[in-house]
What we know:
Blueprint: H1 6-21, H2 29-35, H3 41-53, E1 57-59, E2 67-69, H4 81-90, E3 102-103, E4 110-111
Antiparallel strand pairs: 1-2, 3-4
Helix pairs in contact: 1-3, 2-3
Amino acid sequence: MTGLTEHQLCLLEYIERFMAESGGIAPTFTQMMVAMSLLSKSGVHRLLSALEERGMIRRLPGRARAIEIIDQQPDLTAVPVQALLAELARRGLHPHLPGSTTTAPGSTLPGPLPEPPVPSGSGPSEHRFHASEVSHV
């Protein structure tokens, strides 16, 4: 949530918490004013307008307590799988999807990609510390 001032972020987090605890009902201007230690409701209006301009919330005009938090997470379910795979390939990443048959690098035969080799000496049981080896600081 970049681009928000400290007060805007604080109000947004308050609204999110309030709505989660109240079953989706938004706080009143008075509740937001008290929570933010503001002296007037115009300060709440100013902060809400800024959040709305930045696409963080949506307000329905003419309705009391009608605030909707806009989900900022990208919806990857709307992106076709082929487009995602093409983007990964463009970045040099080649994922192996379970049950898929792909061509392994350097091979013309379709099949699953080989597991990368594990370097020797990298396993967790290669060296065990003895109590005498550990220095106490």
